[in-house]
Write a structure and sequence with these properties.
By secondary structure, the protein is α+β, with helices and mostly antiparallel strands. It has 2 domains: 2-153, Chitobiase, domain 2 (2-Layer Sandwich); 162-325, Mog1/PsbP, alpha/beta/alpha sandwich (Protein Transport Mog1p, Chain A), CATH 3.40.1000.10. The chain is 30% helix and 32% strand. Strands 7, 8, 9, 10, 11, 12, 13 and 14 form an 8-stranded antiparallel sheet that branches. Strands 2-1-3-5-4 form a 5-stranded mixed sheet. A two-stranded antiparallel sheet has the order 6-15. A hairpin with a 2-residue loop joins β11 and β12 (262-274). α3 packs parallel to α4 (123-153) and α4 (123-153) packs across α7 (310-320). It is elongated and about 70 Å long.
Length: 328
């Protein structure tokens, strides 16, 4: 308990000092992408409080054939939170206190950094505070990780204009990706990864696509399949035709989204090769572009058998989120 009080006291002092000064030098933050450092006493970590934290941050990513947690969690007790450990980019600090609150502190010990602070008078109170704020924690942490991923690959961008020429919008693509295919209606950019590839495709659909809410998901699948069947062939197999399609045993998940000022949907599911044992996850963004009477589609898909797909999908998501108008 003493360690927790000291930890929160230091956090309060540093935060107060920051408010009195317009700028203070802070070291660069550290930590792997989608990794969260959790600081709490061991008895809390082993209790229902720890269970709640693990459930919130380690729930499986939707749209993967093999479950992978959304985040990697590293747990430490407050006594270890010192030195360079305090420079972790995303931190969740949970502890018993005389106060009841949950909020986010920015750039406390490093820059950029977010620290989610949860205090409660007992375990039940801690869980209430965390449950009320967990969605904000998850969203803020993800936005920071997206920003950091983008900053990293923006240092060396691909200068090819495949998507720009096709759709008339800009997307920041790392130099490791190469334009492998472009037609009048389709662009395909990819890069090699261990045992596979990470891919980004782009095309447009009529603006009035998916008008029937009763068949919305089915129509999305049909439209996607009509495009990838033509443009993404599978390996040559004697006597068989192979091509990409959407796996429909488990229909894709669909969520509302807005990117680059365009509203639309995010679609997560599994792709597979017809007549060939290949498959993997995809995340597709279908965005409304009423000014040009169309929907634009930017989709990332990964082929990495027996490897984690999460980091590659996250990078593709970060790429798509750089979508921006082109200044002419």
């Amino acid at each position: 308990m003493k360690n927790v009080i000291v930890f929160f006291s230091l956090l309060f002092i540093v935060s107060s000092c920051k408010e009195k000064s317009n700028y203070k030098y802070l070291p660069e933050s550290i930590g792997q992408v989608q990794s969260i450092l959790v600081v709490m006493e061991e008895d809390l970590w082993e209790s229902a409080v720890g269970d709640s934290v693990r459930k919130a941050f380690m729930s499986p990513i939707k749209g993967l054939a093999v479950a992978e947690p959304a985040h990697h969690i590293q747990y430490i007790p407050p006594s270890v939170f010192k030195g360079t450990v305090k420079q972790n980019r995303t931190v969740l600090a949970v502890g018993l206190d005389s106060l009841s609150l949950a909020h986010i502190k920015k750039d406390v010990y490093a820059r950029p950094q977010l620290i989610g602070v949860v205090k409660g008078v007992d375990q039940a109170d801690l869980m209430r505070q965390f449950q009320a704020k967990k969605r904000d924690f998850i969203t803020a942490f993800k936005e920071l990780e997206i920003d950091q991923t983008q900053e990293r690959f923006k240092r060396s961008l691909n200068q090819e204009k495949g998507i720009e020429n096709l759709l008339g919008v800009g997307v920041d693509i790392p130099s490791a990706y190469r334009l492998g295919m472009q037609t009048e209606s389709f662009a395909w950019i990819d890069r090699a990864i261990p045992a596979g590839s990470s891919n980004l495709i782009a095309y447009a659909l009529p603006y009035n696509s998916f008008d029937n809410p009763e068949t919305f998901v089915e129509d999305i699948v049909a439209a996607r399949d009509s495009v990838v069947k033509i443009n993404i062939p599978g390996p040559d197999v004697p006597g068989k035709k192979t091509y990409m399609k959407t796996e429909t045993v488990f229909m894709p998940y669909v969520f509302p989204v807005e990117i680059g000022g365009m509203k639309g949907v995010e679609v997560r599911g599994i792709w597979e090769m017809h007549n060939y044992p290949m498959a993997g996850p995809f995340v597709s963004y279908i965005l409304n572009d009423p000014s040009r009477d169309r929907k634009i589609v930017l989709e990332g898909f990964v082929f990495a058998p027996n490897k984690e797909k999460r980091p590659h999908l996250f990078e593709l998501e970060a790429i798509v989120n750089t979508l921006h108008p082109i200044q002419r």
